[in-house]
Each structure stands twice: as C-alpha cells, then as structure tokens.
Amino acid sequence: MSSAVAHTGDVHLRAADESDLENTLAWQREPGTRQYFRQPNPPTRAKHEAWFRKRLSRPEPALWIVEVAGQPVGTVRLDARGGPDCARYEVSILIASAYRGKGIGVKALNCLRLAHPNANLVATISPENKASIATFIRAGFRQIAPEYYEARPLSGGNAADYTRTGDEDDN
Predict the structure, then answer these.
(1) What is the dihedral of CA 113, 33, 171, 70, to 10 degrees?
(2) Neighbouring-strand partners of residue 74
(3) Strands (DSSP E) along 3-87, which ranges?
(4) How many other C-beta atoms can be found within 10 angstroms of the C-beta atom of residue 16?
(5) Helix (H) or strand (E) holding 90
(6) Could you tell me which residues are beta bridge partners of residue 2?
(7) Is residue 43 very low, low, confident or very high in pLDDT (cuts 50, 70, 90)?
(8) Using 50, 70 and 90 to split pLDDT, how confident is the model at 133?
C-alpha cells in the first residue's frame, strides 16, 4: 500500500493504485451513491475498469483513496479545469455508505487541500444534496453560484484555518 500523502487526524489520502479497482467499483454501485451525480446510473464493470485505468495512467495523481486507520473508505478525485498554467481543479468525493455521517468527508477535503495548497478547488453540487453542501462548506469552500463552490489556495498550507468543524453529518 502507498504511504499517505496528506492526513488530518485519522483520515489519510493516498494515490489510488490497481488494488483499489474493486473497492471503487463497489462504492459506485452502492444504492443511492450516484443519486446526485451528473450520470446517476452506476457504470458497467468494463466502463469502470477503462475509466479507472485511464485515471491511473496520468502522470500526477488525480484519484486519491481516502483511508481511516488504514482502511479504504472512499475516493477524492481532481479534474483539471482551465489552462496548463492554471492550478484549478474540480473536486469530486465519494465516501462509502458505511462511513458517511462521521466527518470523514470534511477531513478528506482538508487532506486534499493540504496535498494541493496552491490549487484553486471548485465543486459542482446539486442544491438538493444538502449533506455534500454542508461537507464542502465545513471544509472551507464557499458558494459562488447556485451549484458552485470554491476553495481558494491555502495561505501557508494550514487547512485548519479554513475549516469549520462539528459533529454534523457529511457526505
């Protein structure tokens, strides 16, 4: 297993590798997981495998595995937005259903911000997805349009300066 590249407390991020294929497919297929996704139908195994391997072939990690105490519990994905000189990425997060509501999503987003302190991160979130909106806001994102949230680059790489904490449910 790869070592963690960023962590906040008991939550760690590491680059995805081939051994994560089955977990990522299973998480995609959990009931209700894709309810607010742009493409709500779960992928076929063949489509997921092709997508996953394409992600792994990128030179810079664009798919992170979220771990709690060494146990994989979800993913955080980055998709470049803007030109080659622009450190702007769209963030997508998926936490396995058994681990939702425990603050893991907020910590995972904080880890991502620490791993990419100079990046401008954006998220597109359905207004109906209240849990995800709350998660991103607690991780320091701010609403910039009805479905769009943004986190500016960190000053000094300290995610705690940009985080609201609490025991609220997250996605």
Answers:
(1) -60
(2) 66, 95
(3) 6-8, 11-15, 63-68, 71-80
(4) 23
(5) strand 88-95
(6) none
(7) confident
(8) very high
All structural domains of the chain = 6-162 (3.40.630.30)
Q: What is the mean pLDDT of residues 95-99?
A: 92
Nearest in space to 34 (alpha carbons), one of 46, 43, 21 = 43
Q: Measured between alpha carbons, how far is 79 from 86 in angstroms, rounded to an integer?
A: 12
Using the structure block, give the residue that is written with the tokens 């996605």: 171
At residue 66, the 3 state secondary structure works out as strand
Do 36 and 128 form a contact (C-beta atoms < 8 A)?
Answer: yes
- The pair of structure tokens assigned to 17 is 């590798």
Question: Who has greater pLDDT, 35 or 160?
Answer: 35
For 61-90, what is each residue's pLDDT tens digit? Answer: 689 999 999 999 999 998 887 665 667 889
